[in-house]
Structures
1.
Amino acid sequence: MTTTAVDWHERAATLKPDGRAFIGGKRVAAASGETFDCISPIDGRLLGPVARCRAEDVHFAVSDGRAAFGDGRWGQRPPSERKRILQAFAEKMLAAREELALLETLDMGKPIGNALSADVPQAARCIAWYAEAIDKIYGEIAPTGPHALALIQREPMGVIGAIVPWNYPMLMAAWKLGPALAAGNSVVLKPSEKSPLTALRLAELAMEAGLPPGVFNVVPGYGHEAGEALALHDEVDAIGFTGSTRVGRKMLEYAGRSNLKRVYNELGGKSAFLVFPDFDDLDRCAETVAASIFYNQGESCNAPSRLLVHEAIVDDFAKRVATEASKYRPADPLDAATVMGALVDHAQLRTVMSYIEAGRAEGAQVLAGGAQTRAETGGCYVEPTVFGGVRNDMRIAREEIFGPVLGIICFKDEAEAVRLANDSPYGLQASVWSSHIDRAHRVARALRAGTVHVNQYDEDDITVPFGGYKQSGNGRDKSLHALDKYTELKTTWLRINS
């Protein structure tokens, strides 16, 4: 797909996003009439006002979702009809791909080429894939013996609260919407206040595709207002949350304070990328780690921010990675050739720069980058940064930075590599690079992570689950396993008399 024929600056100049909430099948202002400004991190431009939803708005949205669930306008439709409507929703997303990509880029700063080639089609594929799964999921009959018949079937839970982050606003929303809607639930979506625009547009497209009013509502607003109200609401049956570990803890707390709703947290990561000296293509390895950590400006929970390299090759490999980092210079996100854009806002810019300073203060050496750039644009840009001489007890090795910062840690042998990799509160992803098949299998089994890549990183598909161990969360997004989060298992027991 090419983007060179489009003047994205011209399109952006004429775009006027609608920031009102979407409740009950229509756009509405917040009950208070309040709004907040949506600011682009590209250059600080005002994109427009967005409804500042609070508890009252959340209650309206949840009540509409509960009414829609109760009267069966969605969940009781034949599977073939729900399938057709969700497929039409995915098709409308693809038809609107340029508008959605532009909204995503303006809102959170990612390159327009990435938004158009990855975010939109992957989000649409997610919706279409779960649509196709609707009439492929069968119930079970338990092996109870000749005098009973025990039927086991999945039923929708009710109202799902989906709270999604700002780094992949559309894709993360699709990961929740696809299985939750396919199962027959109503969904109330709370997008991040830093990137709410595509979520609001998705709700309109879903309605145009035939989704009944009330089944999918969107309440933009701040986390401590709209997000907290959604997580505390007694009529919400489950929360699907993607975000920081700090807020994930709050989600569990809110469940305990309310109706003990199920909480499925997809949280942070500090993924380890292990390179052994027997791997025979270090150039490809260096290209891969750079592409993986600097993609999306490093704002990815699964970014391999800890690069563990054997002592025999660490100096040489560090030079290769530093060279690769120079290919990811931040540039105009509205230029189709740009490969690295802006951080989401000035607060995140300050956070990333504070970690870079912490790395220097703790004794790590800056091998590439390490500075803010393009400040004259008014936007939020940081150079791709590579640290050498990192220890696993440093803050830049322990804490999730969520920016383009890579730390190189040296190890002596396989046992130390595994120990260092697992010495983290997180366990989202990892990668092993070795030409020895035994070592690759042995190390992959030893790593405590939800996904372990071997001689590649971040190859992915909707058919495989995504999630992690430890403080990286619970439950899984993507694949048929995601349906477990949004369905109840019911057993119907019948006694068969002789």
Note: The CA atoms of residues 392 and 423 lie 8 Å apart.
2.
Amino acid sequence: MTALRGGVTGTVTKASPGSVEETVARLADLVAARGMQVFAVVDHSGEAARVGLELRDTKVILFGSPAAGTPVMAAVPLSALELPLKVLVWDDDGQTKVTYTAPETLAERFGLPLELAGRLAGIGPLTDDLVGT
């Protein structure tokens, strides 16, 4: 796991070769190809610009599968605070980064048994494919 600026632990950050826009589009394609769905794309920088503020290119993609997430939320209702899964795609001084909360962190936070924690683990391979590692 990599810590972001400001000491945020429990997150994983990977460098993406594409722009923020390209990375978001590719992530949406990969999510769909795996039979999941994108529930929302939150354009933080776009909304900031809309009210006259400046923010580095910053977008959060919420995605998942009701078949995978529902058993987790049924067992641990508070896990709905973190589901669907989220990936932050952001510009870090000209380098696109992809950051998400590590599945192990989520499992520990909510005391998920291994069977349920495994339902969240696909975010690692998905983001590896996204960034080409």
Note: The helical segments are 20-33, 44-50, 66-75, 103-110, 114-117, 123-131.
3.
Amino acid sequence: MREPAVARKYAVALFNASQKRGELDAVDADMASVRALVSSDHRVVNFLGAPDVAVEKKRAFIATVLAGRVSPLVLELLDLLLEKGRFQFLLPVAAQFHEMALEARGIVRVQATTAVKMGESERTALVARLQNLTGQTVQMTDAVDPRIMGGVVVKIGGKILDGSVKTRLSELRESLMSAPLKS
């Protein structure tokens, strides 16, 4: 099974269990804390993912560091990942779970790329237009890429809305090149 499929399986199970128990927000926050802990020190990942370290030592470490600080559901997930030898999937599981939690709250994450940094009024207007378009609350991050020359490229989930000057010029060029010449 590939990494995305494995991570999705665990994320869906955690999502369903947390919704059933009414703990979606708490589990999401706890997963963010665990993700931050694991991401902040590569030694934690190396230790918990090491095949030569006994699972009981890993469980003891997790109990010492996280017991009482995170939801029992999160502890159960960590224990299951350790037991199945799939701890390396923790970060992808956490990322997919977070996306599912956002979606359940009606929030969509959007990446907007412009040629120059947007002003606050432009950013606010773009967020409003995207909220009208999606019908969801938009959580937008923005980036600058001078290569697009102008306009904006928006990534929403797996979709890309390309309103860049670069793309428009390319489309115009293709149109002109394919148009028949009149004599």
Note: The longest strand covers residues 107-114.
4.
Amino acid sequence: MKILLINGPNLNLLGARDASVYGSKTLPEIESLLSKKAKELGTELVKFQSNHEGALVDFIQENRRQASGVIINPGAFTHYGLALRDSLADTTLPVIEVHLSNIYAREEFRRRSVIAPVARGQISGLGWRGYVAALDTLVALIAESADVNPAKKTAG
């Protein structure tokens, strides 16, 4: 099973951004923790980060057939990334949206997600632990889906 781990704009600067909002871990540190957890769960992570919406869309389109699910922190594209939203919807894969900060406790414009309607769930405000929760949940959802629909076991 392969899970796409996608991070949007400015997440490459984690560790240098406001730690009170985003925590002190860098993106490579978070990815390393998740890779270890994925190995424990018997899955593989395919990691990608970009500051450009088109690059994120291209990555999703190029990898959707080999993937079983998606964990995405869309960053600022959360609020207006309609092309990103459409590419996630087109995959028909289960998607978990993750945010390090609690987007509902921040500025008004951050409280609306165009990604949420096409995501199976959203985790917000748990810092880097939100990614771990997303991975645990997504792997369980995929396994349950495969148990119900054996044809889905062939993905990834």
Note: The chain has one domain: 2-154.
